Amino acid sequence: DAGVIQSPRHEVTEMGQEVTLRCKPISGHNSLFWYRQTMMRGLELLIYFNNNVPIDDSGMPEDRFSAKMPNASFSTLKIQPSEPRDSAVYFCASSPGGKTYEQYFGPGTRLTVT
Amino acid sequence: GENVEQHPSTLSVQEGDSAVIKCTYSDSASNYFPWYKQELGKGPQLIIDIRSNVGEKKDQRIAVTLNKTAKHFSLHITETQPEDSAVYFCAASISGNQFYFGTGTSLTVIP
């Protein structure tokens, strides 16, 4: 299996621009998670989906952030407009779901907002 | 919500020695405790996990112990090798939903 796939791996953008991060979960996994990692706050959950439905988005910092999962093999995290404080590494993880709790992380997208 | 504390933040050991990383959690409802290894520029990799109905689990040189009463769990790495050098994260979860991560331990194995 290819594992969780994220794109792009690196993104540099200017403040105010829209940023879209993409994730392809492991085939057959029913749960998908978006995390953000910074030195100050560590790894924090932004939102997660079960069977393509958003379950908990309480970690989304503000309305500038939105996430979608239109089908079982694709999810996006969008930031509009982006700000320098959004600079971080964003990870997508997937899990089989049900009684299987393991989460498998993608390689991450390093976002720099100037 | 759940609060996970992890110690130490940095750890240096000689190759061949053992390394121990400890975590505590606050929510007694947490029942799943994974450990992740993160190498520079990569995503966290699941290395071992334990559920609350088990006190200890081993996988070759890696073991995890859980004390539900005291609400703490530990990662033990024996016969450390330079390739074990990485940042290690513990996490606690209720039935695999939201993972609450510790702040990480940077392990350096000195050849």
Structural notes for this entry:
The complex is a heterodimer of chains A (114) and B (111). In chain A, strand 5 (42-50) and strand 6 form a beta hairpin. Chain A contains no helices and eleven strands. In chain A, 0% of the residues lie in helices and 54% in strands. Chain A is globular. Chain B contains no helices and eleven strands. Chain B starts with a strand and ends with a strand. The mean pLDDT of chain B is 95. Chain A binds chain B through residues 4, 31, 33, 42-45, 48, 55-56, 91, 93, 95, 97, 100-108, and chain B through 32, 34, 36, 42-46, 49, 51, 89, 93, 95-99, 101-104.
Layout: helices, strands, pairs:
The complex is a heterodimer of chains A (114) and B (111).
Chain A: E1 5-7, E2 10-13, E3 19-24, E4 31-38, E5 42-50, E6 53-56, E7 65-71, E8 74-79, E9 88-95, E10 104-105, E11 109-113
Parallel strand pairs in A: 2-11
Antiparallel strand pairs in A: 1-3, 3-8, 4-5, 4-9, 5-6, 7-8, 9-10, 9-11
Chain B: E1 4-7, E2 10-14, E3 19-25, E4 32-38, E5 45-51, E6 56-59, E7 62-67, E8 72-77, E9 86-93, E10 99-101, E11 105-110
Parallel strand pairs in B: 2-11
Antiparallel strand pairs in B: 1-3, 3-8, 4-5, 4-9, 6-7, 7-8, 9-10, 9-11
